[in-house]
Amino acid sequence: MDKILLCNIDKPDSHLIDTYIKGGGYKSLKKALKMKPENIVQTVKDSGLRGRGGAGFPAGLKWSFIPKDPTLRKYLCCNADEGEPGTFKDRAIIDKDPHLLLEGMIITSHAIGAADAYIYIRGEFAFGAKRLDEAITEAYEKGFLGKDILGSGFSLDIYVHRGFGAYICGEETALIESIEGFRGQPRKKPPFPALAGLYAKPTVINNVETLACVPAIIERGVEWFKSMGPEKSPGPKIFGVSGHVKKPGLYELPMGTPLREIVYEHAGGIKDDRKLKAVIPGGVSAPMLTEKDLDTPMDFDSLAAKKSMLGSGAVIVMDETTCMVKVSYIISRFFSHESCGKCTPCREGMHWTTNVLKRLEEGDGRPGDVELLESLCTNIFGRTFCPLGDGAVMALRGAMSNFKEEFDYHEKHKKCQVS
Fold it and tell me: Which residue(s) pair with 278 in the sheet?
């Protein structure tokens, strides 16, 4: 498959607007500006593009929820927070091909009738924020942003908003709270952002990879996009592979590529030719899979059937020397640290889960600790204000269901079974 989302990143000066235009950039914008906004929405809806941020919600359907009233102010927010461990795909687009994102944002804003758009980028990504600011300046100079874009009558301003590095701000309503200047905590839904989002106005929130798909859909059409991947999850997908593989990196492949192909063909197989033990298919909140699941197509529905999820497409590979109790402790510690503290099951539950895992990992486990972990999971899952607690529990349950004997061994023998 020819690269679509990563086609420019290896070019010299790939971040500059002249390089982007020379490669055919902003042609889709010119085409989209001649289309009726409702036709753009319908095109993206027909393409079957699903959000690449984790939930997999159909992008065109989300756009169609925005009220059509032209007197209402509307916003587009690009989620560039990318705070989940193992996830680094959006950064490649931001750092090396920022105009692809901007073109997708301008087309999307035109489709939903937004006159202002925000890129919410993680505070630590200073280089990416600088690149975006420079790209936005270039786009204004060329007439792709600002008043009356290319004489179309459509106007748009884009702002870069740097967050403070809180994982929860990847959740759409917490992101909105943060842009508005409040502490990044999730809001109660409904109302959903499509009706009452940023500054209580209709708002679409998509992540970087989702918006980067839009120019190609406009340029090449619905059938071309649907020709890649499974019927219900079409299009290209960037998989970020890390962990115990020979060639970690970003791989752009059709949605639905088997996990085995990603690990053994594209990422070169397991480092030092050891045996594969487990794979987290979509960021640390995704329940891990094992050797028997390697032929699973990497798409939303196939992974859901395996009781895991595609998430961000961050594939983390672990070999036979990996202790699953230690992995679970590290993941739990991350979620506990990143809990915003708004609700008790997440704030207190993740704290206790981390404490129990810590003592098991350090050889201080107590009789009943494994059962206590299962009880904590039951009392967190489905009882938290936002999906952070659920994600943490799904990861731990995935490890315990596949490798329960390791947890039992730590508890009984007070040492690790594999290392």
Answer: 318
Average pLDDT per block of 10 residues along the chain, 419 residues long: 93 97 97 97 97 90 95 97 92 97 98 98 95 98 97 97 92 96 94 96 97 98 95 95 97 97 97 97 93 96 94 95 96 95 94 97 95 96 93 93 95 90
Tens-digit pLDDT profile for residues 34-67: 999 999 999 999 999 999 987 889 999 999 999 9
CA-wise closest residue to 81 among 45, 129, 34: 129
Helix (H, G, I), strand (E, B) or coil at 415: coil
Per-position DSSP letters for 262-307, written without gaps between them? IIIIIS-SBGGG--EEEEESSSTTSPPB-GGGTT-BSSHHHHHHTT
Q: Kindly report the pTM of this predicted structure.
A: 0.95
355 Cβ contact partners less than 8 Å away, ≥ 6 residues apart: none
Q: How many whole angstroms separate alpha carbon 97 and alpha carbon 9?
A: 6
Residues listed for the chain? 419
How far apart, in whole angstroms, are the C-alpha atoms of residue 346 and residue 336? 8
What is residue 322's three-state secondary structure?
A: coil
Q: Which H or E element spans position 244?
A: none
Question: How far is the C-alpha of 248 from the C-alpha of 44, rounded, in Å?
Answer: 32
Cα–Cα distance between 247 and 266 in angstroms, integer?
8
Spell out the residues 6+ positions from residue 28 whose beta carbon is closer than 8 angstroms to its own: 103, 107, 214, 215, 216, 218, 219
